[in-house]
Amino acid sequence: MGRGQLADTYVAALQHDLADVPAAATLVGVVRTPTSWFHAAVDENYPELGPPRDLLESVRDAEEELKMRGLCAEGAHNAAWEQVGFGEGYREHLERSSDAQAALSALAQRLENDEAIALVCYENTEKKRCHRTILREVLEQRLRG
What we know:
There is one protein chain. This protein has helices at residues 11-15, 36-41, 53-68, 73-83, 86-96, 98-112, 131-144, and strands spanning 6-10, 26-29, 44-45, 117-121. The chain is globular and about 50 Å long. It has one domain (6-125). Helix content is 54%, strand content 11%. Strand 2, helix 2 and strand 3 form a beta-alpha-beta unit. It has seven helices and four strands. The two termini are 15 Å apart. It is of the alpha/beta class.
């Protein structure tokens, strides 16, 4: 048994041919509520691996408050992420949700069967923090077992 490649990118990079992912990678969306244009850019989507709505709303509310105080969009996003404990909350979701656990197991199995997978969401992680980097870490840890 081999080990497939695991990459991650964001949808705009795919749409503008800027994504650095293996050529044969299955593009796996990991967003809770994908738009039609998001669906058109990926091969499949696992909404159960998207952040829970309440956690996303907490970040958005904090982000808006921080923007009102004068922070730029990226700065407000990253500060809000820390303020609401997004990373910890998302990891907790992945651990506690049976649907998320099933999706993680399915993706890990596909990687163990030598499939190349690229996780896809909306955020450009050059400027903003994003759940898919945590998801990638969790999958890599699971594969190391």
